[in-house]
Amino acid sequence: MDIYEIINKIYLMPEASINKLMTSLSTVVYPKGFRILEAGKIERNVFFIKEGIVRAYVLVDGKEVTFWIGREGDTIVSLKSYVNNQCGYETVELMENSVLYVLERNDLYELFKEDIHIANWGRKFAELEFLQTEERLISLLFSTATERYITLLKNNSDLLQRIPLECLASYLGITPVSLSRIRAKMRQIR
């Protein structure tokens, strides 16, 4: 996804502000399996996904629990690092060869001081990140595994081909066996 589309998806800005933001961006390419963020480290960059898919996970009792999946147009950020300059709790792993736009947090903070439109874009960015987290939490608390799977199919069906089923099961808050049962049940209904 083009960086202009990604920026404007977050918040529309005047062309001059977009161009100012663009001068601080660079493009990086990493292979599948690369860990773009590491738990226990302060991340000083914000990444925007041009091509590829990623997952964020935490270790719980020695097992990787996937809690977020990002794709083209999404942003990779450790909110704990972004907001408080503290070590993040998540690891973010590339699930495909990926092309990312990268923006150093310090550069972004300087742009916030210089340009009110970029500052408003940054505020909107943070609001959207928090809203997505809240929606994910509400879904896990108040919908069934089957409902979460149906929502995944409706909104992101291509993930079934792009992400290993173990990661999808973890993301849905269920075991791989439960996911297989739900999928088999769904096939019977069709």
UniProtKB/TrEMBL annotation:
It holds the Pfam family cNMP_binding. Coiled coil: none annotated. It comes from the Bacteria. Signal peptide: none annotated. SUPFAM superfamilies: cAMP-binding domain-like. InterPro entries: cNMP-bd_dom, cNMP-bd_dom_sf, RmlC-like_jellyroll. Residues 13-112 form the Cyclic nucleotide-binding domain. This is Cyclic nucleotide-binding protein. The lineage of its organism: Bacteria, Pseudomonadati, Bacteroidota, Bacteroidia, Bacteroidales.
